[in-house]
Recover the amino acids of this structure.
C-alpha cells in the first residue's frame, strides 16, 4: 500500500517551525516488494494522490517504473547522445555539435517527457524565422529524434513523440564544366589547387577527406592515394591511382611541405598544412572564404566544393568508367545516391542529338531532342 507524504527538510532547524517539512509532496509505493520513493512535483495533496495511483497502476500492470523519468531534462539526453557519438564514432562530432547548438538554444531546461510534436513545430518555426533551409532543419530534427530514441532505449523516456520532417527542395544540381573548374582553380594558391584537383578528379569530400590527408597516405612511387578505413563517411577505405597530371601536382605539394618543414625545423605529417600565418604547419581545416572569393572572380558565384562530387561522378560515367568502379572511387555506398549525383547537363542532351543525327530513315544530317522525343 502506497502513501503520500511531505519529507522533512534537512536544514529544518534553521527554518521557522512551519517550514520543517517540504511543501512538495512525495509518494511511496512498491515494485516487486521494493519501496520506491519519488517526488510528485506538486504541492496539492489530491494531485499527489493522483500521481501515486498512476504509479501503482503502472507497477501492477508490469509497465516500467522509472523514479527519475519525470525529472529528466533535455540537457541530460543531449549529453547522452554526444557521449554515444563520441564512443561509437557514428557521427562527426564537429557536425553533431553544430546541430546540437541550435537544439540547445531552444530545448535547454525542458523536461524530456514533455517534448512533443508541438515543441518540434515551434522549433521549426523559429529556425525558419532565422533563415534556415528545410534540409538543414530536417538534419537537426533527425538529431532530436535520435536523442529521444536513445533516451527511450536507456529507459529515460517512456514514449517516443511523432515528429514529422519538412518537405525539402529538390537535390542540388550544381556541377563544374571543365572550363569553370579551371577558372576557379587558377585563382587559388598552389596548395589549394592540388586539393581541389583531388576533389574534381575523384569526388572526395573536401573538408572531411581531402584536407585530412597525411603524406603517408600518398605513394608517389606507386602513384596511389588512399583513405584509411574510418576516415570516410561510410567507414570504408579507398585506394585510387593517380592520373599523371595529378601525380605531378601532388609531388610538387610534397616538396612545398618539405620546404616548410626545413623552415620550421620540425616534421609536418599533413599533406595540406597551413603555409603561413599563426597556424603555419598545422593541418588546414577549411578555406571557405578563399573559395568563395575565387568563385566570384571566376564568374561562378555560389558554387560549392561539394559540387565536385557530382562533377566527378558525371565525368567518370561519361568517360565510360563502369558505375560499380566509379562508386568505389567516390565512396557512394548505394546506387540511389550515386544516381542522384549523376547530373545530366544541356551539353549531354545536345550530344544525344549529334549521336542520333542521320540514324532515322528520311533524315539527312539533323535530329533534335525536344521534350523527350526525337524529330527531324
Amino acid at each position: 500500500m502506497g502513501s503520500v507524504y511531505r519529507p522533512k527538510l534537512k536544514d529544518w532547524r534553521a527554518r521557522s517551525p512551519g517550514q520543517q517539512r517540504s511543501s512538495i509532496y512525495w509518494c511511496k509505493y512498491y515494485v516487486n516488494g521494493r519501496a520506491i520513493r519519488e517526488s510528485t512535483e506538486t504541492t496539492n495533496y489530491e494531485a499527489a494522490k493522483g500521481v501515486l495511483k498512476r504509479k501503482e497502476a503502472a507497477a501492477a500492470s508490469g509497465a516500467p517504473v522509472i523514479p527519475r523519468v519525470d525529472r529528466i531534462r533535455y540537457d541530460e539526453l543531449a549529453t547522452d547522445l554526444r557521449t554515444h557519438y563520441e564512443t561509437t564514432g557514428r557521427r562527426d562530432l564537429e557536425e553533431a555539435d553544430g546541430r546540437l547548438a541550435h537544439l540547445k538554444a531552444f530545448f535547454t531546461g525542458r523536461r524530456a517527457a514533455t517534448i512533443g510534436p508541438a515543441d518540434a513545430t515551434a522549433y521549426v518555426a523559429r529556425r525558419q524565422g532565422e533563415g534556415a533551409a528545410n534540409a538543414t532543419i530536417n538534419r537537426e530534427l533527425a538529431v532530436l529524434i535520435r536523442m529521444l530514441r536513445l533516451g527511450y532505449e536507456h529507459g529515460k523516456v517512456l514514449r517516443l513523440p511523432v515528429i514529422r520532417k519538412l518537405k525539402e527542395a529538390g537535390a542540388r544540381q550544381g556541377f563544374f564544366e571543365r572550363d569553370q573548374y579551371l577558372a576557379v582553380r587558377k585563382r587559388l594558391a598552389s596548395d589549394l589547387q592540388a586539393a581541389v584537383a583531388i576533389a574534381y578528379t575523384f569526388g572526395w569530400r573536401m573538408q572531411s577527406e581531402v584536407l585530412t590527408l597525411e603524406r603517408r597516405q600518398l605513394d608517389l612511387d606507386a602513384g596511389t592515394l588512399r583513405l584509411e578505413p574510418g576516415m570516410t563517411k561510410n567507414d570504408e577505405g579507398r585506394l585510387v591511382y593517380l592520373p599523371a597530371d595529378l601525380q605531378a601536382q601532388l609531388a610538387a605539394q610534397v616538396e612545398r611541405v618539405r620546404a616548410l618543414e626545413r623552415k620550421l625545423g620540425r616534421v609536418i605529417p599533413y599533406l595540406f598544412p597551413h603555409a603561413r600565418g599563426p597556424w603555419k604547419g598545422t593541418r588546414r581545416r577549411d578555406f571557405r572564404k578563399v573559395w568563395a572569393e575565387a568563385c566570384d572572380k571566376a564568374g561562378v558565384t555560389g558554387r560549392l566544393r561539394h559540387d565536385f562530387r557530382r562533377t566527378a561522378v558525371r565525368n567518370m560515367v561519361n568517360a565510360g568508367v563502369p558505375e560499380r568502379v566509379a562508386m568505389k572511387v567516390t565512396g557512394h555506398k548505394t546506387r540511389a545516391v550515386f544516381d542522384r549525383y549523376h547530373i545530366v547537363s544541356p551539353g549531354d542532351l545536345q550530344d544525344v542529338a549529334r549521336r542520333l543525327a542521320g540514324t532515322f530513315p528520311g533524315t539527312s544530317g539533323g535530329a533534335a531532342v525536344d521534350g523527350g522525343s526525337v524529330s527531324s
Observations:
- The chain has a mean pLDDT of 82.
- The beta strands are 3-5, 26-31, 34-39, 218-219, 224-227, 238-241, 368-370, 373-375.
- The chain has 14 helices and eight strands.
